[in-house]
Amino acid sequence: MEHSEAERVGALHALGVLDTPREERYDRVVRLAQQIFGVGAAAVNLVDADRQWTKAEVGLPGLVNTPRRDSFCARTVEHPGALVVPDAAADDRFRTNPFVRGDPPVRFYAGHPLRAPGGERIGSLCLTDPVPRELTAREQAILAELAGLVEHELAAQHEIDHAGQVQRMLMPRTAPSVPGWDLAARWAPARELGGDFYDWWVQDGRLQLHVADVMGKGLPAALLAASVRAVLHGSARYNDQRAAVDRAGAALESILEDTGTFVTAFAARVDLGTGVLDYVDAGHGLAVVCDPTGAHRRLCSSGLPLGVLPGSTWEPRTERLAPGETLLVISDGLLDYFPDVPAALARAGRAVADSAGCEELVERVLRFALERGLDDDVTVLALRRAG
User: Fold this and answer.
1) Are 88 and 128 in contact (CB under 8 A)?
2) Which superkingdom (predicted)?
3) Are 209 and 140 within one domain?
4) How do residues 294-311 score in pLDDT, each as one tens digit?
5) Sign (positive/negative) of CA torsion 158, 30, 220, 287?
6) What's the whole-model pTM score?
7) Do 121 and 192 belong to one domain?
């Protein structure tokens, strides 16, 4: 099936790969291609509406953006098969090309189209050399196999990006309106997908809060996080905090055991009239209540993480948020920037004192982590009682 130019360019842009940093998985393919074919250069080039952008290259230092009119690969995407030019200086299509007239010149070119997941030809894995040569049928087949590796990486990244979008959509988009209370949260995965999540809703005059952290990073952690979130959400709808976490732990026991994974979780229900907080802390241990000066008291953990010990149960605990106090829950990704947990929580307390509201607070904490680079997923949730 042939695609229009608009469809082709749209498919390229949908991949989200243009103008991204170099990546070893693509560099590895071009190095391999150069070695297999013994050519001067190899590259992964993507053809945009008016330019060629180079994702990976070897032997072509400094090549990033090329006008489309000068691109050999722009010709490659016009046809379903490989484009082989044994001697560009003797080919009417290319003899005046600036690369052919360059130093060193491009005399030999071979490119195999790269296709997006929908089949649109979006670029080329290409070979160039300053000496004319032929490419045998067997060599063309090898070039096609290498191009398939690049296509696989592009498609895999596209799927991960899409999964990341879905995961972000599953996070609560806006905080529920609760008069007399201020609520906000932020989440940033270390990779495209993460194992942290938060959740909230209001039911019968009480605010339910969840913050959890699945061991690990990336796609496996994200898949488990989706299951944990759904189970915790469903259990908490119809049970008190102890029963909700106990039932969630039992329901998740086999999958966590099979995957060798555990989950730390903080589940709380806040009476919006009295400020009484009933909570279960399953090995999370990173929830504090702060007064307006930043002085804080750490909420005690009430059991092991989910998945550590089969048959575990969790003891509920009670706290009260006085007017002006803030509940702050973070994930352990923030601990990477401090020598120990008390230092991290003390810094969090200062952020509470320095922030006028919860939106400012969570943004301040998350920005602190982002400016230092994320090695782990980071989640921060804040609830402040007016006063």
Assistant:
1) no
2) Bacteria
3) no
4) 999 999 887 899 888 888
5) negative
6) 0.65
7) no
